[in-house]
Amino acid sequence: MRTVTAIIVCTAAAIAAGGGFAETMDAYPEEIRMVLDVTQPLEHDRGSRLPLYLWPARNPGALSEADAEALVRALDERGIGLYCSWTGDVEATLAQALPIARAQRELGLRVNVDATVPMHGFCDGTDATAHLDAEGQAFHDTSCAGAKLGCPYRLDHRIPVIRERIETLAAAYADEGLPIDFIFADWEIDGPIEWNDSHETAKRCAVCREHAPGLDDFLTYQHEVRAIRSRLQREAYALPLRRLFPDVLVGNYAVYPNDGWRYWYDYFERYLEGQPARVDQRARYRHWANEFTPTGYTFAMPVVYQWSPMYAWYDFASSDYRWFYNGLLVASNAGAHTPPDTPIIAFVHWHTVDLTQEGEEKPPQFSEEKYQELLWHMLLRGIDAFFLWSPVAEARKEVELLHPVYAAAQAYGAFLDEGVPISFDTPKAPGPVVSGLRLGDRVLVRRTDFTNDAAPVTIALPRGGSITVPRADGACAVIEVE
Ligand SMILES: [Zn+2]
To answer: What's the gap in Å between 234 CA and the centre of ligand 1?
Structure first.
């Protein structure tokens, strides 16, 4: 039986000989082979901390038990949690997922699942889910990337359909005595949404008119729509899973506790002039509902990407600080408002998500160095783990940048496990940025500078005492509390 150990030896030999991957690596998809090639085993034990989740480290195919265990073990040595995606083909889904889940259980690791596909289709595009005008004519809102979004008040019949998909697959694990420990979805343009033309569209709907109190007021409507959206996720997804697996980490892309504001826009969302917003230079931050608690989710999933339009929001002299600033705002928002016992697993991506139109100037790419600094600051502000999203063409570079930070951070396990963030402050101008985790009388700190300023920075700590932080580019320090 082929094993990953043997495969890696073969790969190293093949690379040394100037060749590509050894033929035996064919047992695994190309992207997984890339991950094994790019990453090294951890030098520091990661304890029981969450693994690193990588978009390319998923769906290995239907492997033999031995190949499954070898792969799970090889990725775990690197701190990476392999996950399997559920699809509409139950048999094929389980043929791939169950050998991996058995291996993960055998090795004492988390069983990880992607529930994106079965979650999709609350708004299935039919007239039964559509808005209805005064004459009873069905219509949809298509202003969010062309999806046929329906009426918030005509989606309840979809809950049992979606729930049944989730329960069927989850039961197959439970029947074998296998747990599901971590399950996420990338569920976005489905269900009720208030952005783009969605609100204006709802105002033309007789059903929305009848049911939505205060439909004409955007914030009232947002509150209502997000409550319905949360209920769909809770009843079809979060609760059925929590009933079967009480300790499961269940969550969804972009759903996380917050301060009532969202500091970024997804690719399908845009600001409409006149909507209430908080102004920060040219940025228009949006009101956001507390949708996390009513979903019943057990981990938070903020999104820290370099969306191209954000670059023009700010006029900081430091190009990198435009990206860094927004990323730190988003991460700090989640870190400051998520209860300490609720894990935060942040979606990250380094390459610019390019939403420029033809003829528009593309913004400069965030530097590799400052992106890695941002990752460190996220960890020191309460982000527990990262989830890399990446298109195939960008994946190798993304893993090359992300994995070393995750691996190096494991040297500070006690701080990551028990430390309390000392700051969620995001400086309004480029300068020294300090983040830290306090454990007793010591603070693990990271200072990142965006100017030539080398003067030490003194920071008063939330629970008393202070620390003085010298400039130390590219390094963490452990500092005694004064
Ligand atoms: Zn409606």
So the answer is: 21
Dihedral sign for Cα atoms in the order 441, 446, 449, 454: positive
Comparing C-alpha atoms, which of 411, 405, 403, 416 is closest to residue 57?
A: 403
Separation of alpha carbons 281 and 313, rounded Å: 6
Strand-pair category, 53-54 with 84-85: unpaired
pLDDT at 25: 67
Q: Residue 482 CB: number of other CB atoms within 10 A?
A: 10
Q: pLDDT at position 9, please?
A: 38
Q: How far is the CA of 154 from the centre of ligand 1 (A)?
A: 7
Q: In whole angstroms, give the CA distance from residue 132 to residue 119.
A: 25
Cα angle 469, 435, 281 (rounded to 5 degrees) comes to 110
How remote is the C-alpha of 200 from its chain's centroid? 30
Ligand 1 centroid to Cα of residue 286, in Å, is 23
> Which H or E run contains 319?
helix 319-337
What is the full DSSP assignment across 45-92? Answer: --TTS--BEETTSB---S--HHHHHHHHHHHHHTTB--BEE--S-HHH
Q: Is residue 75 a contact partner of residue 53, using CB atoms and an 8 Å limit? A: no
Residues with CB under 5 A from ligand 1 (ion): 131, 151, 205, 207-208
C-alpha to C-alpha distance for 151 and 128, rounded to whole angstroms: 9
Q: How confident is the model at residue 440 (pLDDT cuts 50, 70, 90)?
A: very high
DSSP H helices in 157-205:
159-175, 198-203
Q: pLDDT tens digits, residue range 68-92?
A: 999 999 999 999 999 999 999 999 9
DSSP state of 138: E
**Which tens digit of pLDDT belongs to each residue from 19-38?**
333 345 678 999 999 999 99
Q: How far is the CA of 135 from the centre of ligand 1 (A)?
A: 13
